[in-house]
Amino acid sequence: MSEYEYIITINSGLGQISASEVKGITGRDVEIEDNILRLKGTEEDGYKLILWGRTIHRVLLLIDEGEFTDLDELGRRVGKIDFKPYFKRGLRFALKTNRYGEHDFTSLDVNRVIGGVINRKLRLQDLDPIVDLDNPDIQFIMRVINDKYMLTINLVGESLHVRGYRRYNHPAAIKTSIAAAMVLLSNWDNEDFIDPMAGGGTIPIEAALYKYRYAPGLYRKTHPIINIPVFSPELYYNYRENAEESKLDNLDINILYNDISRKYMDGAIINASSAGVDKFIQFLNFDARYLHKYHIPLREGFITVFNPPYGIRMTRDRAIPSLYRDVVNTLVNLGCKRIITITAAWRSMIDAFEYSNVKLVRRIQVKHGQLDTFILDGVIS
Length: 381
Description:
Blueprint: E1 4-10, H1 15-26, E2 31-33, E3 36-41, H2 43-52, E4 56-67, H3 71-79, E5 92-100, H4 107-124, E6 130-131, E7 138-145, E8 148-154, H5 176-185, E9 193-195, H6 202-211, H7 233-245, E10 255-258, H8 262-275, E11 281-284, E12 302-306, H9 320-334, E13 336-343, H10 346-355, E14 359-368, E15 371-379
Parallel strand pairs: 5-6, 5-7, 9-10, 9-12, 10-11, 12-13
Antiparallel strand pairs: 1-3, 1-4, 2-3, 4-8, 7-8, 13-15, 14-15
Helix pairs in contact: 2-7, 3-4, 5-6, 9-10
């Protein structure tokens, strides 16, 4: 059985969580390197990662890497690659470059020079390529870091965090891969689960997908991996069928959505219905600060995962400390045993933890869009 090397792109700061997830999916050791993961595995591992990966973004097939001194040398190295194992005759292709460090050339220069080299080599190998920058069958990705390069093929197309179920766009929606990472971080087993400030519903939806074994990759009809000769479309579709058959139903677990905004709740219901998990989520429309005043179907020892306002959704920054304190205190009084939250106003959240005797056990810095945020992990004894 052939072995391949996969390069897996991830959220900045979530290397350990994503590596643990990838090992759980494949059963193989994973290396963490500069916000990517490296994995040596089989063809089957590629299908599993594409279909089941929740916290990862792209799965790339490594076809060449090394060092270079200038763009001409990089072109010569790429020109020596045998592309026949990776390219079917008459396919459309494109090259994208991700460049880091100081160079005397730009990413566009790399696209022009190396894209030309690939095109010529494919023609020399009688593969009749078609350059298509907008809708390629095969996307080569060149990663350049200082004097090192890595040429890969994108096996998934658009980043896997774009699930495809989101129909309603909340103004401050959390990235699905970060939401999934927070759910995994909570070590959630059979406890009840709540997001008390759930907005567009991403966290409870990702929680339901995880608990009921819905493979996120199934929201796409197919993936570009089937265009590559070393992979088998038949085996890929067998893995899709197996993933469909893995779905669960009727677990004795309460997954609760709550938000003070009826508009956001209605949008979340649309998203959950699109994802096919609305039947697994109970939707509530209360003020999170006062949940203790209502009959909330949560059993003692429940898990909380949430993405509160932290200055983007809320213009009155002075209100954030008291908001955090009230919400955390309410959760503790209701019987919560663990709180996972993400915020840029992390000092205010730590103060709220201390106020309610929540022990901070982990703090992880995460880049969320252009914001530097922290995931905070707190336990209540």
